[in-house]
Amino acid sequence: MIKRILAGVAAVGALGGLGFLYYAWYPSIAPVPRPAASSFSAAQIERGRIVAAEGYCAECHTRTDMGGGPELAGDYKMDTPFGAIYSSNITPDEKTGIGNWSEAAFHRAMHLGVSREGEHLIPAFPFDHFTKMTDQDISDLYAYIMTRPAVSMAQRPNELPFPLSLRILQAGWKLLYFWPGVYKPDPRHDALWNRGAYLAEGNAHCGACHTPRDFMGAEKRSSDYEGAVVDNWIAPPLNEHNPTPTTWTEDELFQYLRFGVAPLHGPAGGPMSPVPHRFLSTVPEEDVHAIAHYFADLDHASERQGHDKAALALAMEQSKAGLIGPNTDPDAKLYQGACAACHYNAAPTPVLGRPDLALNNALWLDEPTNLYQVILHGLTAEEGQSGIAMPSFYNALSDQDMARIAAYLRRTRTTLPPWTDLEKKAAAVRKTVQHVPVNSSH
């Protein structure tokens, strides 16, 4: 009897294994000669350029360490909890890039996360978002990429330990987390909302940075847009749980995404900075409006902004109060000497080039990470608001100084509990800064 049970279990296991192999196996698609640029129309290439910009392709497929690398030639290092992963060369070089990929192979990679050779792609490449893209957008993107300069450059090998390095195991990840299929418009919403949802959920893959991940590296679908840690910065929540005292309205979102600065919330910094400056500033304005419209609905902006007027007035009063009259608070004096000259505001609203910290995400998050990152990195004239820079205080402020400023701002500009272990956290963030920026304050 026991032998029969064991034999039955073995048979079920074998069938399950065969079923998994059948599910996991994809054939190789034959290589093709690199398509001639003349085979694509100028209109299709331009549409593809827009698709590439809205998907930030160059951001993750261009090396930034080791002195940088050619655009789209890959080798961008992505640090993950499982080990470093290096992006692929997606220029049309036939040996180290994708120049010998047919359009069918390109479509399969985007929609199913499978390479031309039939290997499963690691989900650091967000095919779980790209699967929502239309065939037309993917064809246009193919035309754009195949007409870029071909660059011969190989990527460094991924640093995933065995057995995570086995590509076939990615099929198991897909069984658990991947639901392929093009975006289906929601009939409950208008065309602008659906365009924004299509872009945000698909090509722009906003959730890849703004949604927390589980122990398997998959986005937590129950926590969409709740915020996450990305490249040692915190990508804040994009839903109604964003903690800033003034609402991210559709106009604030549009200004931020299009120009890199929102009047009431301040400039884009860190990993977010290239999104408006390198990419969304170059696409049709109506697409940026659509993304802003979608997220304004997602965060229930119209229902929540009734308190904004009072919150804005309070922020202006707090900013003014910190500079008027004698002040015996040593932390306030440190803030005044280092920060207040550029961050002081008076009623009725902040000056665009003078972000008010009481309204900024950095002070209202659970950790002071983003505040410390901006203090240490600063913002160049190409980041944040165009043409306006903030110097780095990497050399000018110690970890203790930064902790004092953080404590002072948290207790005087927010209604939230104080942060803890501030000096220790300042030291930890400083370690993530790889070099002292050239505009560093002395």
UniProtKB/TrEMBL annotation:
PANTHER family: ALCOHOL DEHYDROGENASE CYTOCHROME C SUBUNIT (PTHR35008:SF8), BLL4482 PROTEIN-RELATED (PTHR35008). InterPro entries: Cyt_c-like_dom, Cyt_c-like_dom_sf, Cytochrome_c-type_DH, Membr-bd_ADH_cyt_c. Binds 3 heme c groups covalently per subunit. The keyword Transmembrane helix applies. It holds the Pfam family Cytochrome_CBB3. Heme c 1 binds at C57, C60, H61. The chain crosses the membrane at residues 5-25. It is found in: Cell membrane. GO terms for molecular function: electron transfer activity; heme binding; iron ion binding; oxidoreductase activity, acting on CH-OH group of donors. This is Cytochrome c. PROSITE patterns: CYTC (PS51007). Its cofactor is heme c.
